[in-house]
TrEMBL record:
Origin: domain of life: Eukaryota
Annotated InterPro entries: F-box-assoc_dom_typ1, F-box-assoc_interact_dom, F-box-like_dom_sf, F-box_dom, FAS1_dom_sf, FAS1_domain, FLA15/16/17/18
Coiled coil: none
Keywords: Glycoprotein, Proteoglycan, Signal
Pfam name, any one: F-box
Family, per entry: Belongs to the fasciclin-like AGP family.
FAS1 domain mapped to chain residues: 34-173, 256-411
PROSITE patterns per UniProt: FAS1, FBOX
The protein's name: F-box domain-containing protein
Stored PANTHER family: FASCICLIN-LIKE ARABINOGALACTAN PROTEIN 16
């Protein structure tokens, strides 16, 4: 009996095994999560309202894939923030099937693709990219409370799991894109600010209003149209609602912050912005007005106007508030006034608009200072196209200038119509107290080399990018391509060097590569002869870097070398029309008219100054057809040497060509800076800068540029 039972059990076991092997195998997918995941904890936690929205938004699969790639941080609003405190209109908008994308963006705005616990919270304001590709700001207020945007973290580290963490926050975070979607989709009828009333009664004899009698709903009008419309409807203070404000109206506080950031970004209104930042009560009042439906017109005085105010005027109690109050005009914005504004200033047919001729518009804009041109980009696409045109920048009425760096300060020296020396603030973040060891211009930027890296800087746009690379010096920057537009900043590359090697840095990927300076092919004239750089100052033209170089120190052959970023090699581009016969000869390369080269040569013995230019537009891919022509020659008696003696003999002059004038900057034997203006084979003027600039400044030529500074990939992703 026992034997038969054992045999039956064995038979059943074999049968079950064969059936199991015959069934298809159920392998876990890569997106599968375990029971200890932060997503499972969210669905089982007390954040039931948020968990319900995640399920309705069909985001579980997306979040599982995100958790499979990296840790996440979830900012979970309290249940009452979603259930009772959320505007019912906004909540119904989110739950409509057609607004699924807005709901998904809203929820992913609460999730960071990285783990940030309370001990890791940044002490200073820092912004992080969310899964919705928007950014949130993590801050710590004066009472040491943690905040994400304007929401306080009420339950830090509430749920901790191996693949993520959940922080409880006091209210819902609403990204600007969702807020704009809600504003565009709202019904005009539901938020109408016109109070429906019965038509007023008019005495037919006096045409004066009488007390209106009750009128049944749907009854025909009792008065003629003229009499009924003449008084006009009464307008109620009913602002257009929008999520995020204290009364579920527009978030005035955020808009005031954006306004202050705009003042700082455009430049020239820093004093006004400082007052708004320091007077928190005034900024709060402005935000409250915007939240309640007011449109604020700010007549912002620029820094030059604010500088005329005396200390006594600003030191009186309440004086700054009164000054700003006089410059703010609040105008209440009802639904009817908004509708009329759209009706009056809505889209027009571009074909019927009168437009200024292109040449006249260029001429007008060319007379606007470059600082002001930065703000004009947003006027229209037509103006933006003009401002991006390299030809327009080259023909702009604002001329080149010299940048001078001393041991403690940086100066900008403009020449036209008279010489003006201004101190240039070094507004590079985290480096305000440092002065660069070297400062040179390249590709419409200033290159600031420091001890542990370098910064690429556009002082006119107040933009900079810091690249850390100790023991190397940044030699040049250019874009990798034949054309450059404002949205191609990721195409930029830089080249670095020290005594032993060269390296290439790619902005798009943040990568570094080693390069061999002498890897290019040599022709018969250079065979067996090593190339040497005459100066480490590079010149950028159409996406390539060029240096003056020479081969053979005993019998030097001077040439123009090009570094090809696509092939990552240095080779001879063309030969120069002149060279050096003395160690104090001047030999400087610059770009001429935006598409050609110019070379300045001064003979130390005769003091003769020559300017050579390329005859035609330069094709950077082929230098075989380059033809040099003599453009200017100056033989001026008793003209000084442009290259000082040792130990400063490596300091070459800076120059630019202004029509038929040659403008140069150099230091004399005592280290004092001079500006020389030459024309028609004579010295037009010379100006000594000793009373302003310290001895032995380094200097370069720079043209104020509208080209934005490129950013590394990681830094670009953090920009809002």
């Amino acid at each position: 009996m026992d034997f038969s039972n054992s045999f039956s059990k064995l038979l059943l076991l074999l049968l079950a095994t064969s059936i199991a092997t015959a069934l298809p195998e159920n392998k876990p997918t890569s997106g599968q999560i375990n029971s200890n995941s932060v997503l499972v904890a969210l669905l089982d936690s007390h954040y039931t309202e948020l968990a319900e929205l995640v399920e309705k938004a069909l985001l579980l699969q997306t979040l599982e894939e995100a958790v499979g790639r990296h840790n996440i941080t979830i900012f979970a609003p309290r249940n009452d923030a979603l259930e009772r405190n959320l505007d019912p209109l906004f909540k119904s908008f989110l739950l409509e099937p057609r607004n699924l994308k807005s709901l998904q963006s809203l929820l992913m705005f609460h999730i960071l693709p990285r783990r940030i616990s309370s001990p890791q919270w940044p002490s200073l304001s820092h912004h992080h990219r969310t899964l919705s590709n928007d950014h949130v700001h993590l801050t710590v207020d004066t009472t040491r409370r943690l905040k994400v945007d304007s929401a306080e973290i009420v339950r830090p580290d509430d749920v901790i799991r191996p693949d993520g963490i959940i922080h409880g926050i006091e209210r819902l975070l609403i990204p600007r894109s969702v807020q704009e979607d809600f504003n565009r989709r709202r019904s005009l009828r539901s938020i109408s600010a016109v109070l429906p009333e019965g038509a007023p009664e008019v005495d037919p004899r006096t045409h004066r209003l009488k007390k209106p009698a009750p009128v049944p709903v749907g009854a025909p009008p009792v008065l003629p149209v003229y009499d009924a419309m003449s008084p006009g409807p009464s307008l109620a203070p009913a602002p257009a609602p929008g999520p995020g404000g204290p009364r579920h109206h527009f978030n005035g506080e955020a808009q005031v912050k954006d306004f202050i950031h705009t003042l700082l970004h455009y430049g020239g209104y820093n004093e006004m912005a400082d007052i708004l930042v320091n007077l928190t009560s005034l900024a709060t009042e402005m935000g409250r007005l915007v939240s309640e439906g007011y449109v604020l017109t700010v007549l912002a005085p620029n820094d030059e106007a604010m500088a005329k105010l005396t200390t006594d005027q600003l030191s009186e109690p309440g004086a700054p508030e009164q000054i700003v109050y006089y410059h703010i005009i609040p105008e209440y914005q009802t639904e009817e006034s908004m509708y009329n504004a759209v009706r009056r200033f809505g889209k027009k047919n571009a074909a019927h608009e009168e437009q200024l001729p292109w040449e006249l518009l260029e001429e007008i804009l060319s007379r606007v200072p470059l600082k002001s041109l930065v703000r004009l980009r947003v006027v229209c696409k037509r103006w933006n196209v003009i401002l991006d045109d390299k030809r327009f920048i080259n023909n702009h009425k604002e001329t080149f200038r010299f940048i001078l760096k001393t041991k403690s300060k940086i100066y900008s020296v403009s020449i036209d119509p008279k010489i003006v020396v201004r101190e240039l603030p070094c507004d590079i973040p985290d480096l305000e107290c440092q002065i660069p060891t070297t400062l040179v211009d390249c590709d419409e930027f200033l290159i600031c080399n420091m001890d542990d890296g370098a910064a690429v800087w556009n002082p006119w746009l107040k933009q900079s990018t810091w690249i850390r690379q100790p023991r190397f010096s940044l030699e040049g920057i250019c874009y990798n391509g034949s054309n450059r537009t404002s949205d191609q900043v990721s195409l930029y590359k830089t080249i670095w060097a020290n005594c032993t090697e060269w390296r290439i840095h790619d902005f798009a990927f943040g990568t570094w590569k080693r390069s061999n300076f002498n890897s290019g092919d040599s022709n018969q004239r250079e065979k067996g002869r090593r190339k040497n750089l005459h100066s480490d100052m590079s010149v950028s033209l159409n996406g390539s870097l060029f240096w003056i170089a020479y081969v053979d120190e005993t019998d030097p052959l001077y040439l123009l070398g090009r570094f090809n970023f696509s092939k990552e090699r240095f080779y001879t581009f063309c030969y120069l029309p002149c060279g050096m016969s003395h160690s104090r000869d001047a030999l400087v390369l610059r770009v001429f008219k935006g598409d050609r080269f110019s070379v300045l040569k001064q003979c130390y013995v005769t003091k003769k100054v020559e300017i050579w230019v390329t005859k035609n537009k330069v094709n950077v891919e082929d230098g075989s057809d380059v033809v040099w022509v003599s453009f200017m020659t100056f033989s001026i008696p008793h003209f000084p040497s442009l290259v000082p003696a040792e130990p400063y003999s490596d300091q070459q002059p800076s120059y630019y060509i202004d029509d038929k004038r040659l403008v140069m900057c150099s230091c004399d034997e005592n280290g004092q800076a001079w500006i020389y203006v030459l024309g028609e084979n004579k010295l037009i003027s010379k100006v000594h800068l000793d009373s302003v600039v310290d001895p032995w400044p380094s200097h370069c030529t720079y043209f104020p540029s509208l080209v934005p500074v490129p950013r590394e990939k990681n830094e670009a992703e953090l920009q809002v």
